[in-house]
Design brief:
The chain contains ten helices and nine strands. By secondary structure, the chain is of the alpha/beta class. It has one domain (5-203): Aldolase class I (TIM Barrel). Strand 6, helix 6 and strand 7 (137-140) form a beta-alpha-beta unit. The longest helix has 14 residues, at 30-43.
């Protein structure tokens, strides 16, 4: 089990090695969550996040974890803001956790339980705190408000940090974030709109192979 920041880095390096996209499935029923997760896997997106901002979302996370297991796919829990939510995510089978902000208590619980954690950052100060803790992967949120130029600017003082751009990213603007230096972009509602699926496939280099 990954219990150090270095372990977390290796986990996310591996998770995002082939595909620079992650799917965020927020607010859907368990059945719809599995349907959209399957759509993501069929497109070639290997990493899926199901936010658990409230207890009602946990069944959707569990359903996605179960569906992913059948295809040898890992599913993470998003919007994890308390140590208790880290424990809930782990019990539900989440392979990793994602947060909207940087929280030392959440990080410590993730380290204690061996659950790789992706903290959110929106300032250079938060990026510096993450780097001092030995973390190399951070989620820039909200990406659409900060913009690609912000990502390009902060990469100068923090070249070792790998950025996952999240919040307001879709098939239309994803490329601009990747070109600015983000390693990964997270797509949410885009997966529910058939008109965007072909554009997502282009981002994936035409790879429509499902995993597992």
């Amino acid at each position: 089990m990954p219990h150090t920041p270095e372990d977390f880095t290796r986990f996310f390096d591996d998770a995002f090695a082939a595909v620079p996209l992650m799917a965020i499935l927020r607010g859907y029923s368990p059945e719809r969550t599995v349907e959209l997760a399957t759509r993501a896997w069929d497109l070639g997106i290997t990493q899926v996040e199901v936010p658990v901002q409230d207890p009602d979302a946990v069944p959707s996370l569990k359903a996605a974890v179960s569906g992913g297991a059948r295809r040898h796919m890992r599913v993470g829990a998003g919007t994890v803001t308390t140590p208790e939510q880290v424990r809930v995510a782990r019990e539900a089978g989440a392979a990793f956790t994602v947060a909207p902000g940087y929280d030392e208590d959440v990080l410590e619980e993730s380290l204690a339980l061996g659950v790789p954690h992706l903290p959110g950052v929106s300032t250079p100060s938060e990026m510096g705190r993450a780097q001092r803790r030995g973390l190399h992967w951070v989620k820039v949120f909200p990406a659409s408000h900060l913009g690609p130029s912000w990502i390009r600017a902060v990469r100068a003082p923090f070249p070792r940090l790998r950025i996952v751009a999240t919040g307001g990213v879709d098939a239309g603007n994803a490329t601009s974030f990747l070109e600015a230096g983000a390693r990964v972009v997270s797509l949410g509602s885009a997966l529910a709109h058939p008109t965007q699926l072909d554009r997502i496939a282009v981002l994936l280099g035409g790879n429509r192979a499902g995993g597992g």
